[in-house]
Amino acid sequence: MLQSKSFVRKTKGGKVLKVVREHYLRDDIYCGASFCKACDSSTARLSSTAATILIVDTNVVLNQIDLLENPAIDDVVVLSVVLEEVKNKNLGVYNRVRALCSNSMRKFFVFSNEYHKDTYVKAMAGESPNDRNDRGNGGSAIRVAAQWYQNHLGQGTHVLLITNDKENKRKATEEGIFAETVESYVKSLGLPGLLDLLVHPSSEDVGMEDVEDLRPLKRKVIYTEHKPMSEITSGLHRGIYHQGKLRVNRYNPFEAYVGSESIGDEIIVYGRANMNRAFDGDIVAVELLPQDQRHEKSLSIADEEDEEEEDVHLAPSSADAAPRVTNLVQGSAGDINPLSSRPSGRVVGIIKRNWHSYCGSLEPMPMPAGNGGVAHALFVSKDRRIPKIRIQTRQLGNLLDKRIIVAVDSWDCLSRYPSGHYVRTIGEIGDRDTESEVVLIENDIDARPFSSQVLACLPPLPWSVSSPDLANPIRQDLRHLCVFSVDPPDIADVTNFVHPGTPLDDEAAQRGTSVYLVERRIDMLPKPLTEDICSLRADVERLAFSVIWEMTPEAEIISTRYTKSVIKSCAALSYVEAQARMDDSRLMDQVTTDLRNMNALAKMMRLRRIARGALTLASAEVKFQIDTETHDPLDIGMYQIREANQMVEELMLAANVSVAEKILKHFPLCSLLRRHPSPTKEILEPLLRTAAAVGIDLDVTSSKALADSLDRAVGDDPYFNKLIRILVTRCMTQAVYFCSGDLSPPEFFHYGLAAALYTHFTSPIRRYADVIVHRLLAASLGIYKLPDIFQDRAQLTSISDNLNYRHRNAQMASRASVELHTVIYFRKRPTDTEARIVKIRSNGFIVFVPKYGIEGPVYLMARGEKGGGEWLVDEQQQKVKKIDGSISYGVLQTVRIHMEVVEPQPNRPKLQLTLDQGHVA
């Protein structure tokens, strides 16, 4: 059946066009119930014994997704009209619903009610599809589908419409459709724990008599009401408000920054009142404060106990009191002047929320009287930047000693804390596996086993190079060459096994990268590929994708060739093994000789790269020795970089540059490249001040100038230069993937490498970016046709964005894993050691511990200390000193500290660093 609809619309040019839309209706769309005799059971997803089938409306899906994901909720029909509305309103929830509907272990079925002749609801005259769907919250179409299901399946099956929309529920009842609220249905299941998952409806939905109201009868206004979007849009247009992403200071949760393009600077937002219920990562509208209400960027370190103090004194005033800090600047004549204020502001509205689920634990509290009652509790996130969240629970006794996940539901101006709901329990607080899972959840790392659909894409094991592989004209036989690998594995031909559009490819694209934790690795691809088929093992034939250079003895590249190949490695070496071979003068075999020759070439390549302006930076990478049985850390120290590491790095960099040039030449608009933007003036400002305070003049006009000035930054202390390079590394912007068609060539530049072009090609086993680049390179060589996705610029940009998101999250997870295992290691090992001051604050300083690669705050005065405990900060000289001049500390100064694990707040263990004032270097 064909439904036609015509309407007219006016173009931007003023022309009037007649638009005709055709809508095809069918009568062979199946209901999804396996017991239905009228439909094809091969498409069935609902239980064969289902006594009740649920039909959920749009708001139930949007607001109750945590409940729907619980295994206790099944036999759910998701209408296509609902799915489309959810997609338009919240893509994250849409993806979660789609995952439920495609999960073979769950009984969720998508019914295409929009294309069934008996359930299609025609739009009214002049009504858009969205208007039609909004008619009773999509109610008309949803009720028609519910009525059809009841008639279609007969009286033996109970079809129940779940809605919190009171008007939709009233109409459903009048039309003879069974309908219940979410809470009423969940209560009927007799599973009290499910009630904790509920997001309680707002007052405009089901009447509040259906909700256990948690609010006190009388509440005062704590925060300022957010401006409506119409007023925000107007204010942004007139320059009254400024838009940007709010970032909360990890050392001080009461201080945030909003990067504003409209004023070209960061706006400081100080105090919870001025943050006005904004979360870290929210896109906000900010109003600048008058000059007399502005704050300096805080020069103090917030302690955990400060959070309680701040919460107690919340007020709806923009003049939120900041900690008393004295700032000094020494003028040329030795006079002392106050620092000029930087822009300060307050949040007036939320443009886009960044709420998600958070990991943490409940604040300890006594059990309420009676059993099974509702308890009101405060959830404390492990992330200090997140405020406490108020939840209600019927299982308090089971949750007090657990790490749990909580989602935020709302935060009105009458409430000191946001309201949320319990999602699930992770495990016992302090258990290593539990805390490791918290790291993964907080950083959105998918550590689930690969699905059967993904594993079905793999070739059967044992796998080996076949005769057709050897006979393939696209593949060059390099088995006669002395080929060897130095960890990490070299360039395997992963795309020979990962084909575009397959479940394996989709999974790799979503994961984006492998994630390296202290005690384990979470692979982007299944282990048969990473540890066998694509692993370059000694004396085993493997498929590879090779970049072959012809070089002069001076390491100048004369020619470059790219080919699919077959190799047979004669050695698979670790960095330690490769270095030992090069250092052992007794060894003169071919592998060792080739290693030395390659190292000599790599050194020349490295020197030329540095001469062009590439930065040689340093990082505080930590290495643990882990017990193979208990997985507990046995030792901790700085990761040692050897010549073998630098050799492999240099050759990989050169291969990546060569491939970037090749793919961009053939595909100028759809190549995946990697750029590194120059650091901004604002980011470099603290570094320059620190360098000047210790007598170093850093020239940051270009990467070449910075590299040269770093080479000159030497002193009597052999560690001094490395420390300066670590500080410079902290100031670098994040390198990012991008589609070449999205930017102009000057923006392709990689600042750190001083390279006009760069990409990632050398690690397709662990990075999906390299998989894409392999496909581009193969297409540029005429080996394969470029997949259709490369014609879709928007899709390529979306892929780049996801790769950047996954790469950053993998880095954050790795750092969090290091922090976790650092606490585990030092829990029973209080230690005294040396540290270097890297940041000065009014109540202490941030130190870096070279021996262990640890950074953390050291407080100069005890909490509540008065009088003689007052300190002065000299920003220009980068010193903090007592007001009587008796003691002072300066940046990069060596101090002795004591490290010990403490728990200042329940369930929040931390490594505490305290100053040994009797041993100041």
Automatic annotation (TrEMBL):
The keyword Hydrolase is annotated on this UniProt entry: yes
One GO CC term on file: exosome (RNase complex)
Subcellular location: Nucleus
Cofactor annotation: Mg(2+)
Keyword terms: Exonuclease, Exosome, Hydrolase, Magnesium, Nuclease, Nucleus, RNA-binding, rRNA processing
Pfam families cross-referenced by the UniProt entry: OB_Dis3 (PF17849), PIN_4 (PF13638), RNB (PF00773), Rrp44_CSD1 (PF17216), Rrp44_S1 (PF17215)
Annotated RNB domain residues: 475-783
Record GO terms (molecular function): exonuclease activity; RNA binding
BP-aspect Gene Ontology terms: rRNA processing
PROSITE patterns per the UniProt record, alphabetical: RIBONUCLEASE_II
Residue span(s) of domain PIN: 52-170
Superkingdom assignment: Eukaryota
PANTHER family listed in its UniProt record: EXOSOME COMPLEX EXONUCLEASE RRP44 (PTHR23355:SF35), RIBONUCLEASE (PTHR23355)
Record protein name field: Exosome complex exonuclease RRP44 homolog A
